[in-house]
Amino acid sequence: QVQLVESGGGLVQPGGSLRLSCAASGSIFSINAMGWHRQAPGKQRELVAYITSGGSTNYADSVRGRFTISRENAKNTVTLQMSSLKPEDTAVYYCHVYIRLESGGLGGYWGQGTQVTVSA
């Protein structure tokens, strides 16, 4: 019904940059919010950043000033530009969307996750 395609994960050196993208498709009427969460080994999944349909953004304190989230509404995509990466940013990053379906219902959907590894 709804599909999320994530891209951009990989290995990067500390201080480097990486860009994650997530594209949503399917029976979507509108996207209320779209963003990224991450889960590091031994830790709970945590919010990284999200952006609402109105353009409001929210960032985890640990990434504020280094990460930038943006969206292309016409393409139902969200992008996370990550800069000044640190080893502590190493995690599996998950795209999440909260969607108004064409049927009128509401639903939240997770991507499969993409690995980001920050290491020298």
Summarize the structure in words.
The chain is mostly beta strands. The chain has no helices and 11 strands. Strands 2, 4, 5, 6, 9, 10 and 11 form a 7-stranded mixed beta sheet that branches. Strands 1-3-8-7 form a 4-stranded antiparallel beta sheet, with no helix packed on it. β7 (67-72) and β8 (77-82) form a beta hairpin. The chain is elongated, with a radius of gyration of 14 Å. 29% of the residues are buried. The mean pLDDT is 95.
| Category by helix and strand content | mainly beta
Mean pLDDT: 95
* Total number of beta strands: 11
Shape: elongated
Helix content: under 10%
Terminal CA distance: 40 Å
Helical region count?
Answer: 0
H-E string: EEEEEEEEEEE
Indicate the radius of gyration in whole angstroms: 14 Å
Task: Describe the largest sheet.
Answer: 7 strands, mixed
Report the β-strand fraction as a percent range: over 45%
- Uncertain segments: none
Keywords:
4-stranded antiparallel β-sheet; 11 strands; elongated; 120 residues
Describe the SSE topology:
Layout: E1 2-7, E2 10-12, E3 18-26, E4 28-39, E5 46-52, E6 57-59, E7 67-72, E8 77-82, E9 91-101, E10 106-110, E11 114-118
Parallel strand pairs: 2-11
Antiparallel strand pairs: 1-3, 3-8, 4-5, 4-9, 5-6, 7-8, 9-10, 9-11
